[in-house]
Write a structure and sequence with these properties.
By secondary structure, this protein is α/β, with parallel strands linked by helices. Helices cover 33% and strands 24% of the residues. It is built from seven helices and 14 strands. Strands 1, 2, 3, 6, 7, 8, 10, 12, 13 and 14 form a ten-stranded mixed sheet that branches. Strand 12 and strand 13 form a beta hairpin. The radius of gyration is 24 Å and the shape is globular.
Amino acid sequence: MVSTKQAILAAAIAVLVGVCLVAVLVPPTDDYSPYNSGWNGLSKAVKALDAKLVNLDSLEARRPDRLVVLVVGVEKPVTPQQCEILKKLVVYGATVVVMDETGKANQLLECLGVGARVGRGVLVDPLHYVLDPRLPIARLELAGKRMAKLYLNIASPIEVVGGRGSCIGYTYKTAFVDFDGDGKRDPVEPSGRMCVCYRESLGNGTVYLFSDSSILLNAMIDKMDNLNALKTVVENKTVVLVTDFWEPSLHTKLVMALEHIGRLATNTSLRYLIAFLLAVTVYLATANAGKTRR
């Protein structure tokens, strides 16, 4: 007969395996999660740009001039150490692309010395939009004079605060900044061409600021020139998506942990230890099953 301890162990293993299977087979639903295949995830962008998920600490050993660092969905404040890593990467040739419409990335922009900030309010264009005036169309200058059209989603204006860079992406003149969210322009609300993409050189590198992170979402990435614009910025460099500034859900954390274990099991010498432990587990389970039948 199976002992109580064996039954509890078998049940625990079954639950653990079940949880892992659910975590892998059912995608997370976090906003801006690279594992989220829903409308609000980044799975399409990660695949299209061949982006790798990394922590900032791991980038110190990389070659900066062949690197594009994506900072999207900022939720946590930047630490002085993180700022120094990013600043060093840019100075030595990396391209850093910051995408934010909430203003939470302003601390990062300030510590990098970038002369632009994400302003308050939502951009509305009653004439040049798709489906809703809060989804305006913007024009982005790329590769000289070629203009690309960006399909925005609840974007904010960029405020230039004395930087040495320049705006390379604007809304149409019919846009305005909606401060109170009523969808109508009040006398105190600015109107005209609003900056939505800013570029500034720092050292040997470049910082891009997009005032709409929704451009990367699965529901938006293949609209108009959104993807092509990002590919032009990326060129043929290695793209990394830093995970230091967002708060993943428990589901996403589990998926990331399983992915990390998978890499260890296939790409390091730990695969031999894991294979040995798996073989021992199978042997013990088989032996216990044999005793139970007898």
